[in-house]
Design a protein that fits this description.
The protein is α+β, with helices and mostly antiparallel strands and 97 residues long. It has a domain at 45-97: Irregular (HU Protein, Chain A). It has four helices and five strands, in the order H-H-H-E-E-E-E-E-H. Strand 1 and strand 2 form a beta hairpin. Helix 1 (3-14) crosses helix 2.
Length: 97
């Protein structure tokens, strides 16, 4: 399912207009600065927990050394922050059926 299909499904299930459903989906999932609710919260370091569905959060990866596969040279990989999603129990159970 892509964003357009999600928007149409939301409009069908809620009785919203497609335009209103698109605004709702954009408000939740946009990654543009200061637009998407989930992305903005995760970027600040907040957890977004949707009971039964899952949790979006920001995690940290420590700096480490790696190896350039082409030359074999050792390289330093800097610390990084990355978004993560942990599926909730209800979602996991539904997928297993």
């Amino acid at each position: 399912m892509n964003k357009t299909e999600l928007t149409e499904e939301l409009a069908n299930k809620t009785g919203m207009s497609k335009a209103a459903a698109k605004r709702a989906v954009d408000a939740l999932f946009s990654t543009a600065p200061r637009e998407g609710i989930i992305a903005s919260a995760v970027a600040k370091g907040d957890r977004v927990q949707i009971t039964g569905f899952g949790t979006f959060e920001r995690r940290k990866r420590k700096k480490r050394t790696g190896r350039n596969p082409q030359t074999g040279a050792t390289i330093n990989i800097p610390a990084a922050k990355y978004p993560a999603f942990l599926a909730g129990k209800s979602l996991k159970d539904r997928v297993q059926k």
